């Protein structure tokens, strides 16, 4: 019964705005942006509030760790679920976040696709000529620098199905850091992989949690050697934090 109530509340909170944005996007970009702003500022918070109310699903953000953050920075993080996007919107509500996402998310994903396109997030083609992806990153970097936005990159490139930490790919990270030349904030998140499909939502929501923490902020890396060093240390830091959280959960 609680599962039914939870899903019903989520549908009421999200379905109407998702449908409205689908119809708004081809008609008026300004209207679509307004709706997308509502999704970011209101709906993202509402999702976690509903999950907490009906399933005691907690959003545990390490607020103290945010004191490490400068005014503008690049976020790199592990990736576990589509819910990672609203997670960071709730974690950093005062910042104007822009995500690097694969092109499949820019099409036919309710609530997500129109928002990504209207807000000019970076949509990267997964197949074809790699130079096309690099050009998209260059254009994205120019936009976020000019608009004082916060770019968010998931170096794994895809969501982890079981929470394990995958390979961190360097090409996109190096291209983006070359272009934006911003401090790099390394963040870890945990919990999304447990609710990354409908079956897991019904079985793992109750008394679950979604955690996020800023682990370290690096100065802007200069050149390939520094960039690779930052990426390697970032993966080690995230892996250690995931191990710590999971050990605490078992205790």
From TrEMBL:
Annotated GO biological processes are: phosphatidic acid biosynthetic process
Q: Which domain of life is it from?
A: Bacteria
Task: Read off the InterPro entries from this record.
Answer: Plipid/glycerol_acylTrfase
Q: What are the protein's UniProt keywords?
A: Acyltransferase, Lipid biosynthesis, Lipid metabolism, Transferase
Quote the pathway field. Answer: Lipid metabolism
- Does the entry feature the keyword Lipid biosynthesis, yes or no? yes
Q: Which residues form the Phospholipid/glycerol acyltransferase domain?
A: 73-192
Entries under CDD domains matching the protein: LPLAT_AGPAT-like
Q: Name one GO molecular function term.
A: 1-acylglycerol-3-phosphate O-acyltransferase activity
Task: Name it.
Answer: 1-acyl-sn-glycerol-3-phosphate acyltransferase
Q: Which organism is it from?
A: Treponema parvum
